[in-house]
Amino acid sequence: MESGVGLPYAPENWPKPGDIWSWKVGPRVGGRGTFKDRYLYPPKHLPGLDTEMTRRGNAFRSRLSLERYIRRAFPKADVRKFFASFTWTIPSTDGMSQKQCLVPVYSSDEDPMHENGFDNVVCKAGNDKCRSLMPPSDTKPLPAMPCNICCSEPSFCSDCCCILCCKSISLEHEGYSYVKCEAVVSEGYICGHVAHINCALRAYVAGTIGGSIGLDAEYYCRRCDARKDLVPHVSRFLEICQTVEYQGDVEKILNLGICILRGSRRDNAKELLNCIESTVIKLKCGTSLENLWNDDAPTIWSDFSDIGESKGNDTLQSLQDVTPIEPMPFNHEAEMHKLEEEIRDVLKGLRGAQESEYQIAEARLYAQKECLDDLYRQLEKEKSELSRCGSGTDADSLMTNVVKRLDQIRREVTKLKEMEEVAKGFGRTPRGILEEYFHLNIEE
Question: Is the pTM higher than 0.70?
Fold first, then answer.
């Protein structure tokens, strides 16, 4: 958070004598001991500054943005000479990396060197509910190490922006909807990037995924390639749901847990999935939230609280001891008889549909055969007349008719070949053939 004016870290006497630029640095320090956030404040009288400044301040935040401005506003200026007149890289005096993802913000009419401005820090993404702005907890977690991909973006905060969609995460209901990568990527630092679970599921980096990635109720971080077990995360869901007032929100949370655990081959994930699904079934059957939490199911969930520290299934309570949900009463034989009747009706309808299609195809194909038979008869007659006729106008006319008849027969034979496509079934026959030759209007 240091600042200064003029050389060596800001130009002097540019573009006019007496013009002094000022500089300021942010809290992040790179691996080489230089500040990663560096701001250059130009004299206010320079032309076209309003179009170059960001909406949160009046400083150039990157060398590229400053270079673009110089080339546009001062086309005759030597850009290389301008940058050579001062030092762009600013070394850290103590080499200490302070809080991540925080940058100073100044109003456009505020003096950038005003001492009160230096104390005003916010989330890079402008999120007032960012986790980095919350009071520190009693336990101090390892600091997150910013990466050189997404964290270099001016509006991305690794504390509250999803690395998959770049939108802010929600802390509603204890932040059930996102996952944070806590893999240690360097001595004393963790990855710290967060992602919406729904985004991770859609991107096939969460849940149970086969193939080369091989996830089993896990989360795969795209930034550090680390894997995170999601079973402990899901095990908190029912406890969270007990504080939720609306059934729709409860179902939303539990359904997310089902999406995470579905397809897992791990025994602990299967047992947890059965417990969640049982709770959802009770809600669907009309059990109120008040009665739901007074039921036996929550006692099972409490045994999953330490699931991340356990190995195998020794710490999991067997679901065999749990009172199962009572099924809805029904007569088994009557139900099977009903299903048999439904299947019989379906097969009867299918046979009727096939017979109807067969009859249509039979009628149209034989009609086309009769058409070709008539054409062949006419061709034989015309050829016979041509053989008995000598040269002259009549002979030329008969020859023309024979040629036309041959062309007509070729077209009708081709048509018959296309109609024979119905041998595959009407469902696999091109729509144009069914409409043109069989007069069937097939809707989209």
Answer: no
